Amino acid sequence: MFVALDARDERIQIETHEQAVRLRTAGTPYRCPACREELIIRNGRVLPAHFAHRSGSDCVVGEPESRDHLLGKHLLAEWARAAGWQVDFEVYFSGIKQRADLVLRRPGTVHALEFQCAPLSGQRLAERTAGYAQVGVTVQWLLGPRYFADHPTAVQGKFETWGPERGRELRFVDPRRRRMWAWWGITGTGMQVEELAPYPRPAVWRPRGVSLAQEASRVVQALAYRDKAAVAVQSMCYERGVNLGGCPVVVHRCLTAVAGLTDKEWLVRVRWLLRFWRERVWSVTASKQWWCDYVEPARVPLLGQRSVAEVAATAWLDVLIGEGYLVREGNTLRWIRWPRWYADVDRKLGAINRGEY
Ligand SMILES: [Zn+2]
């Protein structure tokens, strides 16, 4: 930690190795703002100078703090100051009992940064984010090394945010290589990868190379492993005289891979087809509303149920309209032709391989 209380209970923020030497020489006791235990000053070569509890402390405030977390906070402060922000470390908001890693201030703006290196449950993420909203502070979650990957999975997915310009977005900080980057415009087919610091560069598209045949095989796998949700949809399919294994190829196209759906996205799409199969005309609103039932809000605290439903529903309607199955007139939808169901997965894979679907 970079913040302690001095003998007069004033907040002391440790910033440099030189300052650490001065504080040590002064010999004043420094106490933890949370548990008020006396802290030691660590001033080695590898890490930024910082305060630490003595070993055996059971203080709950983020101890022991990882090397990555200390380095990352220091780095973020450096970048934020260079961008003209006033920066404070480890600011405690007593009203919500939360401590932000960093708080950035400009006249009229207070912004919290959380550099997340440890695992965090969706529920805690939701609580902490709601806490900041309660005190009128916007928060940006930045993900540390544990979350690095080539493509997003559920591990990162719960930290996704959404904006009108950049769509779904995640941000990462590598404290050792001193880099920050963003993934944005995230969909199941790829995403933009943009270096933000120290040298901003234009975004580069990173495709996600998943073939339709691979996607179609997931249906077979789900059934082979007796996946509960897939088995339930399979029996709905039988009632309609179709086979889940032969479900239309369009359910695998342009998947969003958005986090927070209760079932696999292709499976929710099949449910949607079974639901709207016989409708003559219906509304875009009803179609989007339908998706809300298949979102688990707790798993996407930053996006929220409505945004996830919107993302998944819009992509699905776009692909159905784009491939000529549906037509949209204002707020109404109407079938032009049914997507083709195959008798079984082999016939479907055959059609995919021949490019005839
Ligand atoms: Zn403490």
Describe the structure.
It comes from Lacticaseibacillus pantheris DSM 15945 = JCM 12539 = NBRC 106106. This is Competence protein. The chain has 357 residues and is an alpha+beta fold. The chain has three domains: 1-65, no CATH class; 67-209, Trna Endonuclease, Chain: A, domain 1; 212-354, no CATH class. It is 33% helix and 25% strand. The protein has ten helices and 17 strands. The protein has helices at 17-26, 67-82, 122-134, 154-157, 212-224, 228-239, 265-276, 284-292, 304-322, 345-354, and strands at 3-5, 11-13, 30-31, 38-42, 50-53, 86-93, 98-106, 109-116, 138-143, 161-163, 167-174, 179-187, 190-197, 204-207, 281-283, 326-329, 332-335. The strands form five sheets. A five-stranded antiparallel β-sheet has the order 10-11-12-13-14. Helix 5 (212-224) runs antiparallel to helix 10 and helix 8 crosses helix 9 (304-322). The longest helix has 19 residues, at 304-322. The protein is elongated. The N and C termini lie far apart (59 Å). The mean pLDDT is 92. Zinc ion (ZN) binds next to loops.
List keywords for this structure.
357 residues, alpha+beta, Trna Endonuclease, Chain: A, domain 1, 3 domains, 33% helix, elongated, binds zinc ion
What's the topology here?
Elements (H helix, E strand, L loop, with lengths): L2 E3 L5 E3 L3 H10 L3 E2 L6 E5 L7 E4 L13 H16 L3 E8 L4 E9 L2 E8 L5 H13 L3 E6 L10 H4 L3 E3 L3 E8 L4 E9 L2 E8 L6 E4 L4 H13 L3 H12 L25 H12 L4 E3 H9 L11 H19 L3 E4 L2 E4 L9 H10 L3
Bound molecules: zinc ion.
